[in-house]
TrEMBL record:
<protein>
    <recommendedName>
        <fullName>HNH endonuclease</fullName>
    </recommendedName>
</protein>
<dbReference type="InterPro" id="IPR044925">
    <property type="entry name" value="His-Me_finger_sf"/>
</dbReference>
């Protein structure tokens, strides 16, 4: 099985075109223990609720592996958050980040919402994210590198200075000014 078809099987919305993506329904609703394990990997900040678990390369989305009906399954963390809040997703339904933080799993206005590939593309075009493989993304760390830096800044919990440094790509030690977070 090719990597692409594997990703499609997992319902990952980041690596395959919409035309080849199919959502495989969950075999069972997420058990409470799985939901609890998921939220244990989330750090709540005054704005985004950020994933501090595994990060996918190269898109920089969170990844969560769980057991679905006895079978291991891995999904993007933001998709799992949407499933927890909205129930199982249908074909062609994707998660959209209004906050543009790939690790954000906060479902609600200004952060993560249900959307369609077409709407997501329009949003990407609007912010210039659709241009090229590391599209118009001015951060030299790239999406993955930036996400890993943010994740690592959260490993000991919410630390406004460390998080701000990771978000901006600057050295945490060089930041002494008051932060907005
Ligand atoms: Zn957010």
């Amino acid at each position: 099985m090719s990597e692409i078809s594997q990703l499609a099987l997992f319902g990952d919305d980041t690596a395959v075109p919409a035309s080849t993506r199919a959502w495989r329904p969950l075999r069972e609703p997420l058990p409470a223990r799985t939901v609890a394990r998921f939220w244990a990997k989330v750090v709540v900040t005054p704005t985004c609720h950020l994933w501090r678990g595994s990060v996918s390369y190269p898109d920089g989305y969170g990844r969560f592996t769980f057991t679905d009906g006895g079978t291991p399954r891995t999904l993007s963390a933001h998709r799992v958050a949407l499933v927890i809040v909205h129930g199982d997703l249908g074909d062609g339904v994707i998660g959209e980040h209004d906050c543009d933080e790939s690790l954000c799993v906060r479902v609600g206005d200004g952060h993560l919402k249900l959307g369609t590939q077409a709407a997501n593309l329009a949003h990407a075009v609007a912010i210039g994210r659709h241009l090229g493989p590391t599209p118009a993304y001015r951060d030299p760390r790239g999406r993955y590198g930036r996400a890993v830096a943010i994740r690592d800044a959260l490993l000991d919990g919410y630390d406004p200075g460390r998080l701000r440094a990771a978000l901006s790509g600057t050295d945490a030690n060089a930041i002494a000014a008051p932060t907005l977070f």
